[in-house]
Every structure is written in C-alpha cells, then in structure tokens.
Design brief:
Radius of gyration: 31 Å
CATH class of the largest domain: Mainly Alpha
Strand content: under 5%
Shape: elongated
Number of helices: 18
CATH superfamily of the largest domain: Fumarase/aspartase (Central domain)
Number of strands: 4
CATH topology of the largest domain: Fumarase C, Chain A, domain 2
Bound molecules: arginine
C-alpha cells in the first residue's frame, strides 16, 4: 500500500484506512477548527523553540514561519478546505503546512496532540475570558446607567415574592451589579489559572529531545507578572487535567445564573401586574395571534439559555468523571460544551447590554407600589425598639396592629390612636411619622443599605471601575 493511501499522520502502523463511519464518528475538525488561530500560534512558538535548541535549522524555521503566516490568513477564508479524514484541527493544519514546506515534517518533533490540544485550549480560555469580561463590562454599564438614572426611585423589595421593605431601583439594580462584579473577578481568576503552558509534556512523559519548555512558554505569553515562564509541573497531569474547562464552564454558569435572576426580575417588572419597566421594542417580540402582546422574549431566552449553560457544565463533569489518567478519546467531547457556554453567554451579555440601555421605568407605578404602608411595618417595630421595647415584643405588637387594621379595613397608619394604643401603649403621638419613605431611606445611611448617599457612593464606585 502506498504511503498516501494510509492515514497521513499515524498510518504507518496500519494496513487499512479507517472506515468512513469511523472517520465521521471520530472527527472533531467540524468544531475544533475554531482553535486554528491558537493552534498556529502554538506551532509557531514550538517551531521557534525547536530552532532555538538546534532541532530545526534557521532555514527550516524560516520556511515553517512563513508557511504559518500564510496559513493564518488562509484559515480566515470560508473556502479553506478542512478535511474530515484528517480528524482534527491539528492534523489539518499540519498537513496544510506540509503542502507549503517539507520542513513541516519536523514540526511535530517532541510534541503530541495531547499537549498541543491542552495548549490550544489554554490559549482559547485566556482569550475567551478577556472577551467575556469586555462583554460583561458593557452589560454592567447598561445596568449602572439605569441604577444611576433611577437611583432614588422607590419600589417594593420582595422576599418570597411578597412585598417586604421599600428599596430603590438603584439599590435593586446595584445588587445585580455586585453579583456581576464577582463574575468579572472570577473570569480573571480563570484566565490566570489557564495561564500555564503544557507544551513539552508530549503524550504524557515529555521527550528525550532537549526541549526548552520555558522558552516556548515565554513566546506564547504564559508568563507571570514578572515575565517569568509558567509551565505545568507534571506531564501526565498536563494532558489529563480538565480543571480549567470546569472552572471556565462554572464561571459561565455563575454569570448566566446571575443574568437569569436579573432576567426574572425584569420579566416580572415588565408584566402588567407590576408595570415597573418599559422594555424597548427592539428587544421584545409580538404574538402571532394576540395583537396586543409585547413579550420580553429576550429575557426569557436568557433564562432558557442559562439551563443550557448549566447543562454544559454537567456534560463536562460526567465526561471526565470515570477517566483513568491520562488522555482518553472521551476528552475530545470536552470542547463543544465550553464553546457553547462561551457563545451563549456572550450573546446573553450583549442582549442585556442592548435591551437595558434602552429601557425606562414607569415612575408613577413604582411610587404607587412603594407607597404601601405595610412595607414600613418593620420600621415601626424599630421605632418601638428606640422607645425601649424589646424587638421580639415590638414585632408582636406590630403584627397585632397589622391584623387589627386588616380587620377594620383601614390602612395601618389610619388606625385610630385609641385602637393603636390599646394594642401597644408604648406607641407615641408621632408613630405615624414612620410612614414616610424619605425618612425610611434617610435613616438607612449605613453600608449596604438603600440610603441615598449609600447608593450614590456605590454608583460612583462602579463608575470609577467601569467608565474610567
Ligand atoms: N482531537 C483530539 C481531541 O480533541 C486531539 C487529541 C488527540 N489525541 C490522541 N491521542 N488521539 O481530544
């Protein structure tokens, strides 16, 4: 059998080509071709190291370098021919390079697809975290814009989806912003964990050749803050480890869960029952049947896609669970879930940014909802505490007052003074002054509370981080 009838990369040991079904079943190029820019970057660094240690001549390196530079351009075209029979992005690119220069036959010296794919993915994760961070910042800016504009607009805050205590739109939106801020930090941590170079680990046990791993790591930018190379410490771990996949997938889960909870708030606020927010036409859709409908599909899809992103993490955990060290072909299935989480989360973030930046609040509806005096029942208990009543008793008295008002079909501050004093003699003449939202917010000027200066302070904090 002529050499070219065999599988070009590993055909030596085999007398037959893989079955067509096996080729279709085993290929990953349909999805891992998106790693091509990273794969070429890795190959260039590896070749440069091989030349540095004398395993490639200057001339061979220069031919490989030129070939890779041409390929970097060629792969941008949709016409680039990816071949299924070459299995994956790594073998496709090596073959494409070989067509340009015979020197490419030396490129895989001291390298395995195992450390190659681990390197490609670490480069991918560093880039993906940066891209997500940028998109996250845009989403955060939109939320911040609304939080600032409606900083002191009162709305009810809810627990159990029951009116609990008054807050402001600023306080509520900043709560989402704090959560997303932690996601931003998490993405930086994932990028930092990805910043370690596996190249030189080979299949599992490195190579007998005089590879200079630190050199490759430096060329690829796997360096610490002082510019010192960061390389993996164990070749078996380097090719078997998928921690970084899990960390990335989990960072996406965390962020999408935050977006999903934000989405749920927006969906509720957008309902006729709440009527707090007006979403732009551009991010809502109509009904095919009911002409009056304007549905918050963008936010419902964020909720829906979050399920998918959670599933991707689960997918990875299950794929990895029972694998013995080191590389097993199951691991080829590790890429679609992380690519999908990246793609879906990127879109969710862009949708949040686009839709919220054009949303407005219905101020009247918000104020009306927040004027429910029961929202200040806890403040009335605090009032009694200030008059020396133990909180547990104060809580009980106010509970009785609420029940009495309900029975008499009046609102809490409209109870007769005599009736109120009968329930709780510690109530002063001025207890109704509690039912004043401005007072309620002004008395909450401590960190973490919705006092106007607190909100202003946090808005300024986020402005400094996001807008400077
Ligand atoms: N396409 C493979 C993957 O993504 C590359 C690594 C192949 N390694 C191997 N020993 N067959 O996992």
């Amino acid at each position: 059998m002529a050499v070219e009838d065999k599988q070009v990369t590993w055909g030596g040991r085999f007398s037959d080509q893989p079955d067509l079904l096996m080729q279709v079943f085993g290929e990953s190029v349909s999805f891992d071709k998106r790693l091509a820019p990273f794969d070429l970057q890795g190959s260039l660094a590896h070749a440069s190291m091989l030349a540095h240690v004398g395993l490639l001549s200057e001339n061979e390196f220069s031919e490989i370098k030129t070939g890779i530079e041409v390929l970097i351009e060629e792969i941008k075209s949709p016409d680039f021919s990816w071949k299924l029979e070459l299995e994956d992005v790594h073998m496709n690119l090596e073959q494409a390079l070989l067509e340009k220069t015979g020197a490419a036959a030396k490129l895989h010296t001291g390298r395995s697809r195992n450390d190659q794919v681990a390197t490609d993915m670490r480069l991918f994760f560093k880039d993906a975290c940066n891209q997500l961070s940028e998109k996250l910042e845009l989403a955060m800016k939109s939320i911040l814009g609304l939080a600032k504009k409606y900083a002191n607009l009162p709305i009810p805050g809810y627990t159990h989806l029951q009116r609990a205590q008054p807050v402001t739109v600023g306080h509520h939106l900043l709560a989402h912003l704090e959560a997303l801020g932690r996601d931003h930090e998490r993405l930086s941590q994932v990028a930092d964990h990805a910043n370690v170079c596996p190249l030189g680990s080979g299949a599992i046990a490195g190579s007998t050749l005089p590879l200079d791993r630190a050199y490759t790591a430096k060329v690829l930018g796997f360096v610490d803050q002082a510019g010192e190379p960061r390389i993996t410490a164990n070749g078996m771990d380097a090719v078997a480890d998928r921690d970084i996949f899990l960390e990335f997938a989990m960072a996406c889960v965390n962020c999408s869960l935050h977006l999903s909870r934000l989405a749920e708030d927006v969906i509720l606020w957008n309902s006729s029952e709440f009527g707090f927010i007006q979403l732009p036409d551009s991010f809502t859709t109509g009904s095919s049947l009911m002409p009056q409908k304007k549905n918050p599909d963008s936010f419902e899809l964020i909720r829906g896609k979050t399920g998918r992103i959670v599933g991707n993490l689960q997918n990875l955990c299950v794929a990895i669970k029972g694998l013995p060290l080191t590389y097993n072909r199951d691991l080829q299935e590790d890429k679609p879930p992380v690519f999908d989480s990246f793609d879906q989360l990127s879109m969710c973030l862009a949708v949040v940014a686009g839709s919220l930046s054009d949303s407005t609040f219905h101020e009247e509806n918000c104020r009306t909802a927040a004027s429910d005096p029961l929202l200040l029942a806890t403040d009335l208990a605090d009032y009694l505490v200030e008059r020396g009543v133990p909180f547990r008793s104060a809580h009980h008295f106010i509970g009785e007052l609420v029940a009495l008002a309900e029975k008499k079909k009046v609102s809490l501050p409209d109870l007769e003074q005599g009736d109120a004093l009968e329930v709780c003699s510690e109530l002063g003449e001025n207890w109704r002054e509690v039912f004043n939202l401005s007072r309620a917010f002004e008395m909450r000027e401590r960190p973490g509370m919705p006092g106007p200066n607190q909100i202003k302070g946090r808005v300024e904090h986020w402005e400094k981080l996001l807008l400077s």
